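Q: How would the C-alpha cells look for this protein?
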Amino acid sequence: MSGSIPEKTAQYVLNTYARAPFVLERGQGATLTDSEGKTYLDFASGISVNALGHGDAELVAAVSEQIAQLGHVRNLYHSAPHADLAEMLCQHSFADKVYFCNSGTEAIEAAIKFARKSARETFGPGKTDLVAFTGGFHGRTAGALALTAREKYQAPFRPLMPGVTFAPFNDSAAAEKLIGPQTCAVFVEPVQGEGGIHAATPEFLGTLRALCDRHGALLVFDEIQCGVGRTGKLWAHEHFGVQPDMMTLAKALGGGLPIGATLLTLSLIHISEPTRPY
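A: Here is the predicted structure in C-alpha cell form.
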C-alpha cells in the first residue's frame, strides 16, 4: 500500500466530514499526538465521547481482558457484562429496564418506537405526534434526524418522518401550544450539546413534565452528550429535579466503544418484552 493517509482517505473514504490536515497517531489523557510528533490539547473529547481521556489505564485493561475472553455475544444469549451494566444503570437512575444498542442515534430511534407503540397500546391509533426543540441534536438516522431542527442536516433527505413539530428551547408558552392530546412524546436535551451548550431552566423542564402528564405523553431526556457525569452529576437532569419517562445514552457510556442505551420506567416495560420465548 502506498500514498499518504490523507491521500488514501480522499481516494477510498466517502467524504461526509471535512477532516483536519494532520494524522493522529496516539493519545494520552487530554493530549493527542500526530504523525509528525506535534501535540494537541483535545478540547472536543471525540465529540463528548472520551470522558476518561485517551489511553486510560483502567479502560485499556478492561477492554483487553474482555476481548481476550469474549468479543461479541448476540442478544439471544446471556452474558455477565450485559446484565451487570443494566443493573448498574437501573440502580443509579429512575429506570427499571434498559434497552441496549450500538449508538446514540439508535437509542433515539428506539425511544421513538417505544413512545409510539406505548401510545397506540394505551390510547389507540392516532396519538403519534412528537415535539422537539430548536437548537437540539438527536442524531442523523431517519427518525432522529426528523427530531433535529437543523435545515442543513434535514434538507437533503426530505421527506422526513412526519408528525414532528418544534418549539423554541426554554420557551414554556410555545411548548404548551404544541403539546396536546395527539402528542405521544416530547424529546429534549437537559443541556444542549451541538446547540451551543445551552442548559434548560428548571421551570422549562418542569413545564414539560406537567404538560406530558396532562396529555398522556412521554417525556424523553436525550442525555447522549450531557449524561454520564459530564455536568458534575451522573445524569444532567438531576440538576433540575425533573424525572423523565425515558432517557437516551451513548458517547461517554462507552468511552468510544459502540454502545447506546434507552432507559425505561416500569410503566413502559410491557411494550419492550418479547411476545414469545426464545
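The chain has a mean pLDDT of 93.

The radius of gyration is 20 Å.

Upvote if useful.
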